[in-house]
Design a protein that fits this description.
The structure holds 2 protein chains of 2 kinds. Chain A is built from 12 helices and 2 strands; from the N terminus they run ααββαααααααααα. By secondary structure, chain A is an all-alpha fold. In chain A, strand 1 and strand 2 form a beta hairpin. The longest helix of chain A is centred in the first third of the chain and has 37 residues, at 78-114. By secondary structure, chain B is of the alpha/beta class. Chain B is 32% helix and 23% strand. The two termini of chain B are 47 Å apart. The chains are: A mainly alpha, B alpha/beta.
Chain lengths: 303, 695
């Protein structure tokens, strides 16, 4: 109960930042859509209709329904593909961010608290990954861990669907590219936090390093990390969409927003309608996350 | 009648926060005449800094003067335009802040920062401005002005930085100088120099000063008049002698009683803390703000709003207390119950020839540099005894604590606790019984508790770790007992640290340290970050617990007044060496080590009946990487006798049982030393005797 109350108090604080509220609204829109999309009266996102290719928005369908946002190059309903796609986008980008964050926090807190040799090693590995342009890193990792790779084949043999195999490799790629950045932030925060007396107090009562890192240090770094995680989730969403656009994303026929753009791009101006909607979806979600982060930061800075 | 420099008339100041308007200061009246130094004293949160900012008209976006007039040289500053104010600030009114490093731009040379002032305000050219800057650097007694001008702020010591800031404030010959805790961030001997300087400058230049401080002793030494503030109001205003000798407000009275004096110990004159807490600005009582904490509270009189009124017939002494004339004022002496000294037991802690060097990282091929934090430390502490380690920053006192706690291991030498060697034993290798036997109380109450966890869980974790309590029920029971021990309500276990005041946090820190019935508790400046009235309560608590548990307390501090009050034995450290050690009485009476003498004379004393010898140390603290040859103190020693001080490490002389000094001074000179503190009355009789003898 107390926890719930606190949560509402935090939301109440966010209400003071109009920018933050817009962000929350955008993000919440997509989250709610992803949750209830199965109950919405939508057309089948995979059903193709040879007679309705690249139709504009608000077109009447042959079966009497509407293509509210038009159709793509195979006559599939864009609205339902977008809405079903939100599930994929939110699920995989959140999962990738959470895993990248966990690894990055662990790296950062170890480097920051242990210092010395640990710090040198972890920071070096991180810097190696940061030295690659992100896309190059993605492509290298995805090509090495793709469904043709031994790891991918093993996963497939274990009964994982193609989507899961691909999704897992994307999560790993995002982790390698993002975790070092997170580690840097956490390391900086921990370098400051570890000079606090309560850390010395824990050492003086004989606590182990793991306890101090996880219980004494990380909880106190949460403020800036929550803000950063919002931003990072936005970046990951863009990265996954970009991968989809490059054909490295989730396998067809799942409606991935990035791939939806890539699918119709060959049709040029004819496909403007089919391209604008997924683009808007991506930018609204990322914008929402960024505004939310801004709002949180603004509130954190006040007082 | 000349015009006063500054007149505050019924000034009220508010801050606007998310929760609404918070009145910070109200009904504030103060007149400052030319050449006068007025001190504003009060505890944190009383509004003293807000007053200074209001005078500068610099309250920030969320603060505003809501009513009253602030008249500077006949003009109300509230009616001035932003442009007029900008002309006045920095030229007619200057301000010196607490942190010198925060007032100086770290990326600009001192020259550029100094000459800017007369260039902007008076239109001088760079050459003339530089001449003026050199003149003032000279006036603030900084040797070698050219070197200072060419330095960046980080190349100067804290004392030098603050002198530069004062010089900068005086550059345009201001009519009014505001000093907001200008020496709080400095060491005592450095502080003594700066205070000396401020006093002289005021006399020489005739600048009116407002000196804001929490330290009554400093105000006594620097100011002509004093204004005592409490919870947003001035409660007493008068000349130094009036307020200190004939205080007429219960808060002033209480404040003076909570102050440890370097001339009294805890048995002769126990401190009497002011009970209760400073009310939050939104929860101030409607009547006298001090009412709930006042022993003289009388319903029907004190719960009405109070006004400043003159103490009978003395127009210069005003007080905000309706009962001022009814209360029987005593001199704050011999009040409170006197306690008996605890019986000192066998030796518990022994430190022999302790040496701790830290190796600094150096580049490839460069010789490794070594910080010699502790050179040769010898002392022992007994059961039920309070041993104080005193010294200024950089003397190595905290390093001793770190080695004791096992956060670092000794480079050489031995540390015994109850006969077990622990100097080479890092905390990770110590058995739980040993860890709980030796605990630490930290300096900063705002950092001593983890803000993410509740108070109860932090105490509970300690108990579990020490093996004192195992089951949840046991832990809860013991946590409750510990909260009782430090006199906090048991309900505090569920609170988060941010819901606690500084003093309460420090109590939790003490409860945690005593969780496993520690035999030795190292207290590293446990009260230096607290307000005086809270300090008294915390020191009282520590001694109470000590008496009950026969604990040995190693009290690390820079504050000699507190040390004199608390300690049975004192170790004086300087640059990693023990300069002097002995019982508190031995150390505070001659013969002194020259460093102890300087340290003692630097302590500000809030008692008009005491005169002290002034010794201001010259020079800067040497670096611990390149220690001076011979005696570590020889570079600053006012009693240096010659080449021997530069060549040989002085021998440790036994002057009396348990009293030793590390110094080359011959015995007869040591014996001839005069006490630093003397009562005025005694001095008079002495000089009378002398004149009689000569005639």
């Amino acid at each position: 109960m107390a926890r719930l109350k606190k949560f509402f108090a935090a939301v109440g604080l966010l209400r003071e930042s109009p920018v933050g509220m817009i962000g929350v609204g955008l993000v919440l829109f997509w989250v709610v859509i992803a949750l209830i999309v199965g109950f919405l009266p939508l057309r089948d996102p995979l059903a193709q209709s040879a007679g309705d290719l690249l139709k504009p928005a608000l077109t009447l369908a042959k079966d009497g329904g509407h293509y509210w946002l038009g159709t793509d190059d195979r006559g599939r309903d864009i609205l339902s593909r977008l809405f079903f796609g939100s599930r994929l986008v939110l699920f995989w980008s959140s999962l990738a961010t959470i895993i990248a964050y966990s690894v990055g926090m662990l790296m950062g807190v170890t480097a920051g608290y242990r210092g010395g040799w640990w710090d040198e090693a972890i920071s070096f590995i991180g810097n190696v990954f940061l030295a690659f342009p992100q896309m190059v890193l993605f492509i290298v990792i995805l090509s090495q861990l793709g469904s043709d790779s031994p790891a991918g084949q093993w996963l497939a043999r274990m009964g994982f669907s193609a989507t899961w195999v691909k999704g897992t490799t994307i999560v790993l790629a995002v982790m390698f590219a993002t975790a070092p950045q997170v580690a840097r932030i956490v390391r900086g925060l921990v370098l400051d936090l570890k000079t606090r007396d309560y850390v010395a107090a824990a050492e003086v009562r004989g606590e182990g390093a793991l306890y101090i890192m996880l219980v004494e240090l990380l909880p106190n770094a949460r403020g800036p990390l929550i803000v950063d995680a919002c931003l990072r989730l936005g970046y990951v969403t863009i990265a996954i969409a970009a991968l989809g656009f490059l054909g490295l994303g989730l396998p067809p026929p799942d409606p991935d927003w990035g791939k939806m753009i890539a699918d119709v791009r060959g049709f040029g101006a004819l496909a403007a309608n089919a391209m604008i909607w997924p683009a808007l979806a991506i930018s609204s979600l990322v914008l929402g996350l960024n505004l939310m982060a801004d709002g949180l930061r603004e509130i954190a800075l006040r007082d | 009648m000349t015009q006063p420099v500054l007149e505050c008339k019924n000034v009220s100041i508010s801050y606007y926060t998310r929760a609404g308007e918070v009145p910070a200061v109200y009904d504030f009246n103060l007149t400052v005449n030319a050449g006068e130094a007025v001190g504003i004293v009060g505890e944190s949160g009383c509004g003293k800094s807000t007053v200074a900012l209001a005078i500068m008209q610099y309250l920030g976006r969320n603060g505003a003067v809501t009513s009253g007039e602030i008249i500077f040289l006949g003009r109300d500053m509230r009616k001035m335009s932003e442009q007029e104010l900008r002309k006045i600030r920095g030229s007619q009114i200057a301000m010196v802040y607490q942190e010198p490093m925060a007032s100086l731009n770290p990326s600009m040379r001192i020259r550029d920062q100094l000459i800017e002032v007369p260039m902007v305000h008076e239109g001088l050219d760079a050459k003339a401005a530089e001449l003026r800057a050199i003149e003032l650097l000279d006036a603030v007694r900084l040797p070698d002005p050219q070197r200072i001008l060419n330095s960046y702020p980080h190349q100067l010591s804290g004392g030098q930085q603050q002198r530069v800031v004062i010089a900068m404030a005086l550059l345009s010959k201001p009519k009014l100088l505001l000093l907001d805790e200008p020496t709080t961030a400095l060491d005592v001997t450095v502080e003594a120099g700066v205070v000396d300087l401020i006093r002289d400058l005021a006399k020489k230049t005739g600048t009116a000063m407002i000196y804001i401080s929490h330290n009554l002793g400093l105000i006594l030494e620097t100011c002509d008049r004093i204004c005592v503030m409490y919870s947003g109001q001035a409660v007493e205003l008068g000349n130094i002698a009036q307020v200190f000798n004939h205080m007429r407000h219960p808060y002033t009275y209480g404040l003076l009683q909570t102050l440890p004096l370097p001339t009294a110990d805890r048995f002769a004159r126990p401190l009497v803390p002011i009970r209760g807490q400073l009310p939050l600005p939104r929860e101030r009582p409607t009547g006298c703000t001090f009412g709930p904490r006042c022993d003289y509270f009388k319903a029907g009189v004190c719960d009405l709003p109070q006004v400043m009124q003159s103490v009978a017939r003395e127009s210069t002494h005003e007080v905000r207390c309706a009962r001022a004339s009814e209360i029987k004022w005593k001199v704050p002496d011999k009040l409170g119950s006197t306690q008996k000294s605890a019986k000192i037991g066998p030796v518990v802690l022994q430190v022999k020839n302790l040496r701790k060097y830290y190796a600094l990282k150096s580049g490839w091929g460069k010789p490794a540099r070594v910080v010699k934090a502790n050179e040769k430390i010898d002392f022992e502490a007994r059961e039920s005894e309070t041993l104080a380690i005193v010294g200024e920053s950089g003397c190595g006192k905290s390093t001793v604590a770190r080695v004791l706690m096992g956060l670092d291991t000794a480079t050489s030498g031995e540390v015994f606790i109850n006969g077990n060697e622990i100097g080479q034993l890092p905390v990770k290798k110590r058995p739980p019984g040993l860890i709980s036997n030796l605990q630490l109380v930290f300096q900063n109450p705002f950092e001593t508790l983890n803000p993410s966890h509740s108070v109860g869980s932090q105490i509970g974790r300690t108990l579990k770790k020490f093996g004192v309590a195992k089951t949840q029920a046991e832990i809860e029971k013991r946590t409750g007992e510990l909260l009782d021990l430090v006199k906090l309500p048991r309900a505090f276990a569920d609170r988060k640290p941010r819901q606690l005041s500084g003093g309460q946090k420090q109590r939790i820190g003490i409860a945690r340290a005593f969780g496993g019935n520690a035999a030795v508790v190292v207290a590293d400046e446990p009260v230096s970050a607290l307000d005086v009235s809270v300090q008294a309560a915390i020191t009282g608590l520590l001694t109470d617990i000590q008496r009950e548990h026969k604990t040995t307390i190693v009290f690390i501090s820079h504050d000699l007044s507190v040390v004199r009050y608390l300690a049975d034995r004192i170790v004086v450290m300087y640059l990693g060496h023990v300069m002097e050690q002995g019982t508190a009485i031995q150390v505070f009476a001659p013969p002194y080590h020259p460093y102890t003498e300087a340290l003692l004379s630097a302590v500000p004393i809030a008692d008009t009946s005491i005169v002290k010898k002034r010794i201001v140390l010259q020079g800067e603290l040497p670096s611990a990487i390149t220690l001076p040859t011979g005696c570590p103190f020889q570079t600053r020693c006012p009693r240096k006798i010659g080449a021997i001080c530069e060549q040989q490490l002085p021998p440790v002389k036994q002057l009396a049982k348990g009293h030793s000094i590390m110094c080359h001074l011959p015995d007869d000179e040591l014996q001839a030393m005069e006490p630093v503190f003397a009562l005025k009355s005694e001095l008079k009789t002495k000089s009378k005797k002398r004149s009689q003898a000569s005639s």
